[in-house]
Amino acid sequence: MARRNDLRPLVKLRSSAGTGYTYVTRKNRRNDPERLTLRKFDPIARRHVEFKETR
């Protein structure tokens, strides 16, 4: 049975470097109602870049 929780949905984080690399994570919708932006490592660009939430 899959874990379904509407308070912590799965979100895709896409690289702003244009490489197409994505991370998949969960976010707390109550604490972060707007789109999530995290600075993470992009192995294709080989540097840290901003990853923005896509829907």
From TrEMBL:
<dbReference type="Pfam" id="PF00471">
    <property type="entry name" value="Ribosomal_L33"/>
</dbReference>
<keyword id="KW-0689">Ribosomal protein</keyword>
<dbReference type="GO" id="GO:0022625">
    <property type="term" value="C:cytosolic large ribosomal subunit"/>
</dbReference>
<dbReference type="InterPro" id="IPR011332">
    <property type="entry name" value="Ribosomal_zn-bd"/>
</dbReference>
<dbReference type="GO" id="GO:0006412">
    <property type="term" value="P:translation"/>
</dbReference>
<dbReference type="InterPro" id="IPR001705">
    <property type="entry name" value="Ribosomal_bL33"/>
</dbReference>
<comment type="similarity">
    <text>Belongs to the bacterial ribosomal protein bL33 family.</text>
</comment>
<dbReference type="InterPro" id="IPR018264">
    <property type="entry name" value="Ribosomal_bL33_CS"/>
</dbReference>
<dbReference type="GO" id="GO:0003735">
    <property type="term" value="F:structural constituent of ribosome"/>
</dbReference>
<protein>
    <recommendedName>
        <fullName>Large ribosomal subunit protein bL33</fullName>
    </recommendedName>
</protein>
<dbReference type="InterPro" id="IPR038584">
    <property type="entry name" value="Ribosomal_bL33_sf"/>
</dbReference>
<keyword id="KW-0687">Ribonucleoprotein</keyword>
